[in-house]
Design brief:
Number of strands: 10
Distance between the termini: 58 Å
Number of helices: 10
Radius of gyration: 29 Å
Shape: elongated
Length: 416
């Protein structure tokens, strides 16, 4: 370690190592340990003779290492969020600089107009407001803080709604600036008429719908989580990919089409405002209806995603050479079903939180490493041992996922 460097888990701002290096180091150590155990290396002689003992020892070691990785990941996420407000503020003012450059280039030959001044002043006002918001919410991601959901991911519905809100605020400020600079009575009347609902009905309708959807989706997701119809796990930090993917990082059609169509419609409105800065952008009703259809598809996708985990069957796990027989204490049982691993819970620290209730006994699902991942647990099947504390007879089996959601109960017969 060089002079001035702290430990790998340090999160202070002046540390050359920082939280990111500490997290990467913990991940590298975990992967090395997992792949070594998958190859049969590193087992102590005291447990190597017993398959069940070695499996449990390996699972415990991986669980402890995964807990360190998760802790370093949370630390990195907090530091990343704390630094994000400067990046958001810098990006805002870079965009304002781009706007000034575009206006200066387009003013060559045509001349500088009051509309250009109003547009630049409106951009400075909006940028100042966003910068102030970034500073006040600097510990939670700056200006992006209102766009981050309860699961620490960027919310697609909030980002789309925020884009339209900022654009309409900018458009109104442009009209206000032009109205303040107008000297003639007829020009002021024309600018006030530009705010009539008849001219901006399409864009106002889109604004109302996307804002309502941002509120509705939050309520729908919250109720479905509380009703155990949707499994949600918290992310280490928000990412831009959250706008187009589900919690597991897979692209979703509902989110992609909503962002794509919303962005296209917003760009059209921006061009209309640039061409006619004396009135609200008159979004054609055809384009507005397309946005509404896209929004309805997005809401339908939110209603249809997820589902409660379910146990379909429980059987005795049998290896090659074993005799067929009933389930006894000490045997492994294979729980077959669906939804055991919630989206975004594929990391080792989340997998290690899965529990199976066998009668009154809580059994933690062991982690079984293979090159590149784990063979147990999986989304559709779990393998756990029946502990000696389980009394013979009819016993209920139930799985508790990493999201805290319980499955249905399945009854098995345990014999002496």
């Amino acid at each position: 370690m060089l002079p001035g460097e702290h430990g790998g888990g340090c999160t202070c701002g002046d540390c050359p190592h920082g939280a990111r290096t500490g997290h990467r180091r913990a991940v590298a150590e975990f992967l090395l340990m997992r792949d070594g155990f998958a190859a049969g290396q590193g087992l102590p002689a005291a447990v190597a003779h017993s398959a069940s003992a070695s499996r449990q020892w390996v699972s415990d070691e991986l669980t402890q290492s995964a807990a360190v990785v998760a802790e370093r990941g949370r630390a990195e996420g907090e530091v990343w969020l704390a630094r994000l407000w400067r990046r958001t503020a810098f990006t805002v003012w870079v965009l304002i600089g781009v706007l000034l450059l575009v206006q200066a280039l387009t003013a060559i030959g045509a001349g500088w107009t009051a509309a250009r001044t109003a547009g630049l002043v409106a951009a400075v006002l909006v940028g100042s407001a966003l910068t102030a918001a970034s500073w006040f919410h600097r510990a939670r991601g700056g200006a992006l803080a209102p766009l981050i959901g309860e699961d620490n991911r960027l919310s697609t519905s909030r980002v789309v709604a925020a884009g339209w809100v900022l654009f309409l605020a900018y458009a109104v400020l442009v009209l206000v600036g032009r109205l303040a600079a107008a000297s003639g009575h007829e020009e002021r009347d024309a600018l006030i008429a530009g705010l009539d609902l008849a001219r901006g009905a399409g864009v106002v309708t889109v604004l109302a719908v996307v804002c309502a959807i941002a509120v509705l989706v939050r309520r729908v997701v919250g109720l479905r989580v509380l009703g155990q119809r949707l499994q949600k796990v918290r992310a280490d930090r928000p990412r831009a990919a959250d706008l187009l993917t589900d919690d597991a990082g897979r692209g979703t059609f509902a989110d992609i089409q909503y962002v794509m169509i919303g962005t296209v419609a917003l760009l059209f409105a921006v061009v209309r405002l640039a061409r006619r800065p004396d009135q609200l952008p008159d979004l054609p009703w055809g384009l507005a209806v397309v946005v509404l259809v896209s929004a309805a598809t997005y809401v339908a996708g939110k209603y249809s995603e997820g589902g409660r985990p379910v146990i379909l069957s429980v059987v005795r796990s049998r290896e090659a050479g074993d005799l067929d027989g009933p389930i006894r204490t000490g045997d492994d049982i294979e729980i077959r079903g669906a939804g055991f691993v919630p989206p975004g819970a594929g990391t080792a620290d989340r997998l290690s939180r899965m529990v199976v209730r066998i009668g009154p006994v809580h059994v933690h699902v062991p982690l079984v490493p293979v090159p590149g991942g784990f063979s147990n647990p999986r989304d559709e099947v779990l393998t756990v041992p029946v502990p000696a504390d389980v009394e013979p007879g009819r016993v209920e089996v139930q799985v508790v996922t990493a999201a805290g959601v319980e499955t249905n109960r399945c009854v098995i017969d345990v014999t002496d």
